[in-house]
Structure prediction request, 390 residues.
Amino acid sequence: MKTQSAVWKYWAILATLLLPVSTLAAEDGKLKVGFMLPYSGTYAGLGHAITNGFKQHVDELGGKIAGRTVEYVTVDDESDPAKATENAGKLIKRDKVDVIVGTVHSGVALALTRVARETNTLLINPNAGADEITGSLCAPNIFRVSFSAWQPSYAMGNVMLERKHKNVVTLAWKYSFGEQSVAAFKEAFEKGGGKVVKEMTLPFPNTEFQPYLTEIAALKPDAVFVFFSGAGAVKFVKDYVAAGLKTSIPLYAPGFLTDGTLEAMGDAGAGLLTTLHYADGLENAKDKAFRTRYAITYKMQPDVFAVQGYDAAQLLAAGVGAVKGDLGKRADMVKAMETAKIDSPRGAFQLSKAHNPIQDIYLRKAEGRENKVIGVVSKALADPARGCKM
Ligand code: PHB
Prediction:
């Protein structure tokens, strides 16, 4: 009996010793991606497009990156900054993800970025533009494949100057991204002699636009600059047309207004001029292949958000591929991501020292369901990365 219990004890010890090894081996074969994105609310469409784009690239790679099977964990962040820290914590502590891909709303992204910095979690931001993310909050583990608030709106300031507008009213949702978009527009526009006569804001995600439209009609500016996106953008443009303003006071915006929204806007969106780092009708082979596959897979056309999701996966693959799947080699992985040349549907780009894309900004005109490219208004535009010490 004694011998038997000794054998059992031996087996029990061996089993506990082996357990972590075998668990580790199972985890080693996987790459756990945590999507922290909005799947409900006004930005839901953006969250889904990013997810689709990301998965499209992983599927192109056969579902694996450097031999690791990609596994997804998903959190609906509801574009709610109040829930952001807890949601990020869940992905890191409970789900033990290898990388977080998130998010859309800058208020949520700022909190997420702080958590990622504190825990040294690899973060790839597929949209949110708050300048600080690749500015004062920049860090080796924080990457952005989209844009800074500054980039498309600064470019729009110059477009509106060229179009001889002098007095402009701005209107945006009152949170970091809206405010920074207006500030960047104003920086370029006032430098060239334009004047912002009134800055108006409303709380996110409110869509009671009527009082603001009444005020715009009374102020009679030369033009209006706005930031809205997702479902709220559709409502805004329809209301602008219904108020009879579109024919008398031209409306401009960074392209978030019309990307992924033109179909829902119907005729209301026709002719709108916007600036963005993506457009319909780009003549490059990567974009053609990307769009064809996207349309077949998802039965709809891609937008800028889908492109950003796709490029988030490309950047991750560049990093994980360089270390042959050995995530312990973080410094080497970061270096590979920093120097990667991303063959994006928007046109190839590389990251700045602060980890934000250096990219062309296009002028686009809405025609039917497309934001047709008119030309490049800012070639290889780099964000100033104010406050980044890296
Ligand atoms: C942001 O909050 O950073 C944001 C949201 C929606 C967009 C663009 C930027 O379309």
